[in-house]
Amino acid sequence: MPELPEVEITRLGLTPELEGRRITAVTLRRPDLRWPIPGEIAALLPGELILGLRRRAKYLLLDLAPGSALLHLGMSGSLRVLDRDAPAGRHDHVDLALDSGKVVRFNDPRRFGCLLWQPRGETHALLRDLGPEPLSDLFDGNYLFRHSRGRQTSVKAFLMDQATVVGVGNIYAAESLFQAGIAPGRPAGEITRPRYKRLAEAVKDILAHAIRCGGTTFRDFIRPDGRPGYFEQELFVYGREGEPCLNCGAILRGNRLGNRATVWCDHCQA
Ligand SMILES: [Zn+2]
Fold it and tell me: Is the separation of the CB atoms in 176 and 206 below 8 Å?
C-alpha cells in the first residue's frame, strides 16, 4: 500500500511535469473508483492551468483556479506521466492530457483509490478531522505529550490514529517506537514528555529517510513496472517477529495490537 513517503515521492516527481501546464482534456474510462468521480472533474478541468500539486496526509491536491482535484492512491494506485499516445491498459482509469503533449495516467487495479473535487475555499470532508503533518513543526514531543494525557489506548494505536498525526502507518509506527525505545503496548497517557520528544524525532527521521530512499529510485517508480524505493529500506522490527533484534540480539516478540501485527524487542523497548 502506498504510504506517506511514496505519496510524497509521487508529488515531488510529478510537480515539474504539472506545475504551470494547462489541462487540455480529461478521459474517464469508468464512472467510479472507490467512489463515483464527480461531474466537476470532467466539466471543470479542461482548459485549466495547474497552479500546483500539494499533499495532505496521503491525499494529493491538484490545485486549479476553481478548486482542487483530490486524489488518493488507495491500496494499489499509481500516477505516471506518459506520452499522449502511450496505449492505455486495463487498469488505467483516468488520463489528464497536458499542453506539454504528455498525459498524467491514474492506474489502480484494486480501485480503492479516489478522484474527488474540492471547490476553492472549502475543505473536503475527508480532510477535515486530520491531525498535523508529521514533518511539520506542529508535530513534536510537546504536541504528543499534550494530546495523550488521560489516554488509555496503546501508544502504537495513538500514533497510528490520523486524528493524532497523519501518515504514520503500521511500518512507520513499529520502526519509530523501536528507535525511540518505547514498548508499543504501553498506554499513551503514561509516556513522559522526554520520551515523546524522542518518538516525534524518530517519526520524522524515519519518514524523511524513506522519502530520500524512495527519491533515489523515483525514475523506476514512474515506469510502468516501477516499484517505490522505500521497500528496500532497512527495517529493524516490522515483519521480523522471531528474528534477532539488530541492536541487542534478543528474539523479537510479535503480537496483535488494535488488530494490527506488532513486533518489538522486550530488551530495547520499555
Ligand atoms: Zn533489542
Answer: yes
Cα–Cα distance, 266 to 270 (Å, whole number) = 7
Q: Which pTM does this prediction carry?
A: 0.89
Q: Give the single-character DSSP code of 231.
A: G
State the first-to-last Cα distance of the chain, in angstroms, to the nearest integer. Answer: 29
Sign, Cα dihedral of 217, 220, 221, 227: negative
**Known catalytic residue at 204:** no
The alpha carbon of 184 and the centre of ligand 1 are apart by a number of angstroms equal to: 14
- What's the 228 CA to ligand 1 centre distance in angstroms? 28
Q: Measured between alpha carbons, how far is 221 from 9 in angstroms, rounded to an integer?
A: 9
Residues 92, 107 contacting (CB under 8 angstroms): yes
Supply φ then ψ for residue 111, to 5 degrees: 55, 40
The pLDDT tens digits of the residues spanning 70-113 come to 999 998 899 999 999 999 999 999 999 999 999 999 999 999 99
